[in-house]
Amino acid sequence: xxxxxxxxxxxxxxxxxxxxxxxxxxxxxxxxxxxxxxxxxxxxxxxxxxxxxxxxxxxxxxxxxxxxxxxxxxxxxxxxxxxxxxxxxxxxxxxxxxxxxxxxxxxxxxxxxxxxxxxxxxxxxxxxxxxxxxxxxxxxxxxxxxxxxxxxxxxxxxxxxxxxxxxxxxxxxxxxxxxxxxxxxxxxxxxxxxxxxxxxxxxxxxxxxxxxxxxxxxxxxxxxxxxxxxxxxxxxxxxxxxxxxxxxxxxxxxxxxxxxxxxxxxxxxxxxxxxxxxxxxxxxxxxxxxxxxxxxxxxxxxxxxxxxxxxxxxxxxxxxxxxxxxxxxxxxxxxxxxxxxxxxxxxxxxxxxxxxxxxxxxxxxxxxxxxxxxxxxxxxxxxxxxxxxxxxxxxxxxxxxxxxxxxxxxxxxxxxxxxxxxxxxxxxxxxxxxxxxxxxxxxxxxxxxxxxxxxxxxxxxxxxxxxxxxxxxxxxxxxxxxxxxxxxxxxxxxxxxxxxxxxxxxxxxxxxxxxxxxxxxxxxxxxxxxxxxxxx
Length: 536
Fold this sequence. Notes:
Elements: H1 3-13, H2 16-25, H3 27-30, H4 40-49, H5 59-67, H6 71-76, E1 84-85, H7 89-100, H8 103-112, H9 128-137, H10 147-156, H11 161-182, E2 197-198, H12 216-219, E3 222-223, E4 293-301, H13 318-331, E5 334-340, H14 344-355, E6 362-370, E7 373-374, E8 377-379, E9 385-387, H15 388-392, E10 408-413, E11 427-428, H16 439-442, E12 449-453, E13 462-464, E14 468-469, H17 470-482, H18 489-502, E15 504-505, E16 515-518
Parallel strand pairs: 1-2, 3-15, 4-5, 4-6, 6-10, 10-12
Antiparallel strand pairs: 7-8, 8-9, 11-13, 12-16, 13-14
């Protein structure tokens, strides 16, 4: 049978409530609010578009139908027996719990939650699964903390309280086994079923390129020297050394340090071989992206350094970067806030104030810092420096609990080293100082951080006065191009790496290599915006 016809027949056989249940079970795969799924065909189309479902791999549909007890439908459609476990045990548990709650139980549950949830989420037409989703959005429950829900359920239907103990026991048993075999991160969820074979994890290696054809317009563009200039300290000494990537104790084996093209391939400065970690026992989940507002996007744009203690030049061209970032992240659903020309103390103050806010109604956080830089630090307009790590600290689990388990994304446009290939036309975002530390030394040890640096250690990053910086412009363009294709953020940054690494000036001499580093535990996939793509 034609696979599209199979999906059509499956959709026709499902009632409205069953479609809602399937959408709920796929929340982590889709990375968006299940309420936005309008029909079975809509759900199946999204799963196909994101490569979760196809004729060669129909097991997800088999699993979904099995979970909602439509095994006969799966058999009638000729689907294979359920094998891979793709849906997390956490989703399955919440769905099973919803099936065990009666209409009266749900009414009592809503009553007990009247102080925690908005009144509109407790109206009579709101289903049990929608209540659970709202509790997730407000950070009242997650895959490692079901205490509040257990407390309410114990009061509503005591016999169901044992289900929570069984779920925890199942997770502990699987966690212990998988931790020994695969060093799996603690925060990921596990799956039920003693006879189920885990789906192999999508292979993502540190120097692996996406298979899609690379857009050529930006990547192969050349720089015209008449439009650019170069500003350095008087005692600048030209020099060139090999870029290197070092392994860092801040990361576990499951955390990647990505750098592509023109680096020593997977070699550390000490000669050690970096081997990508591949977990073949589970499917990598996606961070939920279901809130009305995606999160706060803070842009710190330092332009005027005329009053700095050190001799730093104005950063002409940075306004173009700021405007592009504003357009793109507003389009992605973020509330954008801009801070201009911040001193070192002001940058720290802004970060601490943002970290002190309640982000429970948000999915994530984005911070973009555009400035001069040196040695793992960025400059304030007063000429003083602050380490990138210190700027990120207000958002760790200890200081900002409402962002725990949510992606915190930092993009730094600033030099991180002294090496510069001889030139007088291109402007570098940093003076000549000692070698820079790498991104992995700046990122916090907490989970769920991503740090996108405009350049690898020991190198400057370039900015055109009329067109902005190579890194930020490439980042914005590829977000606009690839978010509608449901590409995850790390893959997009890999494309940015390749794009920027191939950019050069008109002489073919000047090069740059960005470097992402992260402690993410899931994929970051931004929902496709309803609005048309911004023009950059």
